[in-house]
Structure formats: structure tokens, C-alpha cells
Amino acid sequence: MRFVRGFLSVVLWIIAIPLFLVAFARVLPFDNVIPLPQIVAFMPWAALVALPLLIIALFSRRWVLTLLLAASLAGFVYWTAPFFVPPESSTAADPADVGTLRVMTLNARYGEADAETVVDLVESQHVEVLAVQELTPDFEVALVDAGLDDLLAHSLTVPVVDSPAGSGLWASMPLTDEEQGRGTSFAMPSALVDVGGTEVRVTVVHPYPPMLAETTTWRTELVELADQVHADETPQIMAGDFNATYDHASFREVLGSRFVDATREWGAGPTVTWPEGNPVPALFALDHVVVEKDMPVSDVVSMQVPGTDHRALLATVVVE
User: What is the pLDDT of residues 28-73, one digit of tens each?
Assistant: First the structure.
């Protein structure tokens, strides 16, 4: 019996230690040290493991483990709960209203996404602004052939051959004050659009991913993005693959006190977008629509697109 109890203790601690690491990574105000950016992304899922483990530890009277698990679970719930709190008005805004903007973002995975599906979504979802990451010349042609220009006649594209560095911005209204945003590893074009008489700068976001050898690059590009958007007083919307979840400190620095994550504001739960189309279901919310704090959002959803490992993310933004 003593052997069984000792073995159970070892197993519980082996399972619990990664949860403690996730909680510790989430508490820290920085994430530019390996492996913090890699493990903090698991935070929303850690609660699902922590709860049954806490019950087992409690009933087996392992008090130290129970205390640590209870503290970790409390943190997980505190950090995740806002995603399930709907706004005061949960009525979906009408994309046809002159003061609203229906936004869609998609990482096309080296241009391998199915162009016809993308265009069908643009049409059926009444998309007015489309942000595409990993845009290649061939994929841009495929989008045009599928009829994208008939729906969104204005574009600013930076396609790149056989690379994830390309990006593109399409809109149903004219784009002005265009910027190609080549200062980062991947293109992040932006432009002004007129929404009900208000000029809004829309930026396609795609920083370098936080791979083990490139964590510094990832962090630097998010910091530069934060500096750029906060220095511009123009109302803004950012859409793209941020290669970060809300639990990454670097992503929250981009938000600051000015911007909010549309998914979190809509309150329908975390919207996971990657990795899609694999044996493992989508686990992480890497794709975001980010808006000004005073811009209400509604109807935030993700949708599958064949050929890519990301889900498309859509949101209706009320500008006026």
C-alpha cells in the first residue's frame, strides 16, 4: 500500500509540474526567455487538467500539492473567465450599417489555402476588409481568378514567392495612405479606409513566430509593432496571425490600455485558430482582430479553409 501511495504521488507531481510552469509563465510580465513563449500558450488548456488533478490530490490528502494546484487553478480561471463574459449588448451589429466594418483575417500557409473557399467566405460573410498572411504571387492570382476583385476592388499586396513573408490587404472601399510595412521579417502592409466618415488605419499583422532559436526576433517585432501603433493617433484595426495568444505578455503589450482583442470582447470563449487540419485539433488562438477600446465588436467567429493550417477569423467592428 505504501508503494502504491508513493507511486501515485510521483505520478501526480509529474503531471502537476508542467501546470505550475504554465501558471508561472503566465504570471511573469515578460515572455522573451525560452521556453516561456512556448509554454504559456497552453494556459487555457491547463485548467482542464488542473481541476481533476486537484480533486485527486485533495481526496488523497496531499496538502502541499493541493494548495499549489488550487492556486494555479484559481489563476487559470481568473485569466480565462473574461473570454466567457459577453458584452452588455450581445446583439450582432449589421455589417451593412455604414459605421461598421466586417473584417476577416487568414494565414494562407505559403499560399496553399483554397482560394475559392476564401472568396466564398468573403461573399457569404459580407466581408469588407480581408487581411491575408503568407501571400504568394500564385495565391494572389488564384484569389483574383476566383472573383475576389469583384467583391473587394481595392488592394495593397506584398506577395513573396515560396515564403511566409508575403501579406495582402483587400477592401471594398478605397485604400489611402498605403504603407507596405517591410521593416519586419514578414510584410505588414497597412492603409486607411473610410468607415462612415471616420478614417481607420487597418494593418495586416504577421510577426516572426517564437521558434526556439528566434524568440528574440519574435519579441522584437511585437515590441516594434506596439511602438508603431501606439504612436499613431489615428483610429486603428489590426488583423492577422500575431503568432501569440492573449496569454503572451508581448501580445498584451501591443494592446496596452488602448486596444482590445475582439474575441475576448465578444465573450463567446477563446477562438482557437491553429493548428487546423491536423490529427490534433486546433489548440491555440494565434489569429486576432484587434480594435480600439471604444469600438464594440460582434459576431466574432472562426471558420475552416481547406489547404491551410489556420482557421479564418471574422469579426464585425462598430467604428461609428
Answer: 999 999 999 999 999 999 999 999 999 999 998 899 999 999 999 9
CATH of the domain at 238: 3.60.10.10
Domain limits for position 61: 2-84
pTM for the structure as a whole? 0.94
Nearest to 181 by CA among 152, 149, 157: 157
DSSP 8-state code for residue 42: G
**Integer distance in angstroms from the first to the last C-alpha of the chain?**
68
**C-alpha cell of residue 167:** 501579406
Residues 184 and 265 both lie in one domain: yes
pLDDT at 158: 96
pLDDT at 27 over 70: yes
Query: Helices H, strands E: what count in the chain?
Result: 10, 12
Do 105 and 298 form a contact (C-beta atoms < 8 A)?
Answer: no
CB of 196 within 8 A of CB of 161? Answer: no
The dihedral formed by the CA atoms of 308, 192, 126 and 271, expressed in degrees to the nearest 10? 50
Residue 162 lies in a domain: yes
Sign of CA dihedral 117, 123, 124, 127: positive
Between helices 115-124 and 137-145, what is the axis angle to 10°? 50
